[in-house]
């Protein structure tokens, strides 16, 4: 049984159209499915949890953007349930990684039927008593401030809203004192931002950590030294190509677990996690997904 999870508002109705096309393919082949089509995220989350308790759900397929992907991940990570997304949002970073971005519904469906399955690493972030799974990037500092503002921008959509958010806070942002623990080492440093990546992109294809991989059982952490606002402005466009990591003020660390503390908040895959301190661990093979070839 496949569980189809729809965010009807995603893509200005495009999600519903793509879901109906997918349903037609399922009906044609006799594929059994259930549909979750709720009015808000809380109801969607509760419905997913209820349906998964039935014990006969083999896969969860999201019809929406990265927000819906994040919501579903909380239910499917560290289980045997397969997961995929028919992208209908503006960022679609996870969809880019598994090959469903800019693909026809019929091609994604055929890939699922062919069972092109892969076990992907996922990251688990713990802030106090709360925890959150993510597959792409956890951000803090300047990055998190940009994320918070961008989440409230309804138009324009896509990459440009992150650029606008960055420009809106650039003049008033100051560096933050961080403490980073990893592999029995401790780093105390002021930084403009600290981000921990399991996947290489966020914000609609920005390659924040271009060498991050879903299958290496490691996390990549990036931190940027305090720099002038003009320098930060010059570094930012390079994130779209991944060349910012060559800048002398940019540093990358690789480990399986990080503990980060600072007076700032963290966002994972664009969703609020909590205030630091926070612990992030990689869980190898925690997410069973389909790859669309």
TrEMBL record:
<dbReference type="GO" id="GO:0005886">
    <property type="term" value="C:plasma membrane"/>
</dbReference>
<dbReference type="GO" id="GO:0005524">
    <property type="term" value="F:ATP binding"/>
</dbReference>
<dbReference type="InterPro" id="IPR016064">
    <property type="entry name" value="NAD/diacylglycerol_kinase_sf"/>
</dbReference>
<dbReference type="InterPro" id="IPR050187">
    <property type="entry name" value="Lipid_Phosphate_FormReg"/>
</dbReference>
<dbReference type="GO" id="GO:0016301">
    <property type="term" value="F:kinase activity"/>
</dbReference>
<dbReference type="Pfam" id="PF00781">
    <property type="entry name" value="DAGK_cat"/>
</dbReference>
<feature type="domain" description="DAGKc">
    <location>
        <begin position="1"/>
        <end position="128"/>
    </location>
</feature>
<dbReference type="InterPro" id="IPR001206">
    <property type="entry name" value="Diacylglycerol_kinase_cat_dom"/>
</dbReference>
<keyword id="KW-0808">Transferase</keyword>
<protein>
    <submittedName>
        <fullName>Unannotated protein</fullName>
    </submittedName>
</protein>
<keyword id="KW-0067">ATP-binding</keyword>
<dbReference type="InterPro" id="IPR045540">
    <property type="entry name" value="YegS/DAGK_C"/>
</dbReference>
<keyword id="KW-0547">Nucleotide-binding</keyword>
<dbReference type="InterPro" id="IPR017438">
    <property type="entry name" value="ATP-NAD_kinase_N"/>
</dbReference>
<dbReference type="Pfam" id="PF19279">
    <property type="entry name" value="YegS_C"/>
</dbReference>
<keyword id="KW-0418">Kinase</keyword>
């Amino acid at each position: 049984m496949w569980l189809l999870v729809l965010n009807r508002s995603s893509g200005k109705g495009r999600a519903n159209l793509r879901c109906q096309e997918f349903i037609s393919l399922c009906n044609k082949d006799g594929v059994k499915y259930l549909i979750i089509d709720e009015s808000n995220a809380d109801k969607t989350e509760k419905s997913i949890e209820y349906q998964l308790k039935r014990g006969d759900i083999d896969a969860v397929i999201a019809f929406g953007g990265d927000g819906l992907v994040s919501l579903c991940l909380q239910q499917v990570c560290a289980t045997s349930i397969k997961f995929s997304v028919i992208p209908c949002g503006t960022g679609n970073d996870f969809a880019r990684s598994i090959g469903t971005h800019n693909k026809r519904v019929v091609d994604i469906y055929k890939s699922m039927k062919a069972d092109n399955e892969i076990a992907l690493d996922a990251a688990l972030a713990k802030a106090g008593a709360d925890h959150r799974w993510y597959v792409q990037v956890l951000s803090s500092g300047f990055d998190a401030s940009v994320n918070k503002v961008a989440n409230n921008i309804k138009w324009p959509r896509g990459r440009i809203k992150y650029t606008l958010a960055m420009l809106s806070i650039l003049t008033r942002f100051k560096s933050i004192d961080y403490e980073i623990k990893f592999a029995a080492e401790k780093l105390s440093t002021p930084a403009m931002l600290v981000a921990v990546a399991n996947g290489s992109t966020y914000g609609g294809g920005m390659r924040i950590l271009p060498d991050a991989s879903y299958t290496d059982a490691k996390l990549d952490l990036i931190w940027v030294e305090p720099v002038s606002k003009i320098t930060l402005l010059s570094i930012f466009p390079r994130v779209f190509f991944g060349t910012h990591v060559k800048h002398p003020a940019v540093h990358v660390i690789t480990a399986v677990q990080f503990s980060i503390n600072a007076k700032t908040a963290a966002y994972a895959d664009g969703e609020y996690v909590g205030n630091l301190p926070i612990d992030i661990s990689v869980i190898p093979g925690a997410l069973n997904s389909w790859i669309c070839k």
